[in-house]
């Protein structure tokens, strides 16, 4: 798998299509594993989509006393193995991003597995395939790098961060033009 | 203790040694100073020792993991506390009955799955009890008079029963009953695993299917053995019993290293109500930011300790840890950080602030000439 999940929070329009799609994914048992929430409801209606980061060294797996959270060869952090999980919820408290969900009744933890049946064949996960505003994208590594470069070019000037007072000073005249070999 | 430990190659080898020692001692007691050893079961005996050593090694390496170690440490500390006695007892009994005997949580995942697992689990545990009891010589039968059998447990004569009574028949056929349970369970599991598209997503042949095939081999060869001596007049019995022995040896040697190892770690589930849930499924700790109840003080302390031992630095600038916030607040914290929105945004009726990592193009202002002069000067140098 050489595809990247690329999120842009400010593109989210809060339609929750990703959550509906997540519920439809095989092995998700009609429960969504992603989140769409308001950033700050008192300030604006801006929502954001939230998925698992699929950490290289996941804190959730490290705090699991039953060693139930496994990582696939291609780096996807799976939900806790049902036969090992003892239902302590350590993973939900260890995760720095608040991703794992827990079902007390069935005694099992479930989290975003990037729709492993799809993404292992380089097919976009359910959420990315339905997002109408491209807030969630499943793209090639190179495409992701280009998007990242574009973003940083847009706001990075000489390693300084603009402040509220002088931010206009820092916006460059030209956008998206690579000028190193000028 | 540490002195004793140093005379062994490692802690694990010390524990393995003692496990073997205790088993040999129990054989010595059970068989009346080795007078009742059943040599037909010698192959099983060797495999059982390998099984015991394997389990010891796997349990030790599992308990060494920082997370497991922390939870075990708290559980043992709580067990010693006198003020905790009632809660401990309730937790242990509750987990043993609901979680281990009834396996309620699997029935909640589906009746079919519940029945499957219950049959396999109790079939296996029953078979284990009978097999180990006979192999290690912990129990054997004695003919008191031509019509009465007596069960001898650990060389102590216990129950007497008529040789053809119902109880006797049940005991003789114990392994057949448990084998039938396992056979039905394994067949149900294999049907589910081959039919359901959902489980195929993360199912692995060597991890999820192999144990089922091994169990199937053991039960089928065992039941064929019964079939042979009961209905076919002992047709091919020596060969069949050898095949059965081979499958059982394979099963025992495989057990500590595959999926079936989840059996000995299951009792840790007691730790959840004992350490982390004063009232079942009731949270007591409030989130630092939104005051929602989300966990238990002890548990958050443990999570922080486990993460600390493994060098996860999840402390924020204000000294709080990410684990101090409820999952929803943790998600929000991350997004606000990423969008550069952590700080107060000032007048809500003022102009919209765009300090969110994306600068809207088109508002650029040309810099003063001196700026470009300097830059050109640098290039010339």
UniProtKB/TrEMBL annotation, chain A:
Q: Where is the 4Fe-4S ferredoxin-type domain?
A: 3-33, 43-74, 76-105
Q: Which organism is it from?
A: Halobacillus andaensis
PROSITE patterns named in the record? 4FE4S_FER_1, 4FE4S_FER_2
Q: Does the keyword Repeat apply?
A: yes
The domain of life is Bacteria
Check the record and name the InterPro entries matching this protein.
4Fe4S_Fe-S-bd, 4Fe4S_Fe_S_CS, ET_IronSulfur_Cluster-Binding
Give yes or no: UniProt keyword tRNA processing. Answer: no
Instruction: Extract the GO molecular function terms from the UniProt entry.
Output: 4 iron, 4 sulfur cluster binding; metal ion binding
Keywords of the record: 4Fe-4S, Electron transport, Iron, Iron-sulfur, Metal-binding, Repeat, Transport
Name of the protein in question? Formate dehydrogenase
TrEMBL record, chain B:
Q: Which organism is this entry from?
A: Halobacillus andaensis
Q: Where is the composition biased (Basic and acidic residues)?
A: 366-381
Query: What protein is this chain from?
Result: Uncharacterized protein
Per UniProt, which keywords does this protein have? Membrane, Transmembrane, Transmembrane helix
TM ranges = 12-29, 41-64, 118-139, 170-191, 212-232, 238-257
Superkingdom of the source? Bacteria
Q: What is the lineage of its organism?
A: Bacteria, Bacillati, Bacillota, Bacilli, Bacillales
Region listing for Disordered, in residue ranges: 344-381
The record's annotation in InterPro entries points to: NarG-like_sf
